[in-house]
Amino acid sequence: MKLKHKLGGQDLDAAITELAKKDYQRIKKDEGFSFDWEIEKDNEVYKIYLLSNEKEILGLMSLVDRKEEYRVHLNLLEIRKKHQGREKEIERIAGCLIAFAASAAIKRGYYGFVSLESKTKLIEHYQENYGFRPQGRYLVIEGDSSQYLVQKYLGDE
What we know:
The chain is an alpha+beta fold. The protein has 4 helices and 9 strands, in the order E-E-H-E-E-E-E-H-E-H-E-E-H.
């Protein structure tokens, strides 16, 4: 998958893998992340990093497999502070993580059904940038919307 350096515009090769046990202590001490990721240990927790610098975690995501509801719930998503907002150095981090969740939901036979519960100020962002739509108290993507994200962000894999 490709991330993009905002200033130079060059593509950056990245990977998403499951978070290793040793990473939790490192994240706890890392000022680039705000959440206590230890709380997410019972979920599937993934990290995204550049292949050229595997030690720096760019973003984290916690997924919960809701088998009985045929969906993957994106429980928590956090991007390293320096890669958030208008001043970010690297783009496409959140998109790749969300596309990875959509891909997981497709592979599990859930037709790409991904849900998340968003802070009020981010609802519009998820709708405009990733195709989520409101469904009850959640925002969701599925079907063609999920397939589109997978193709857009993970298509080179």
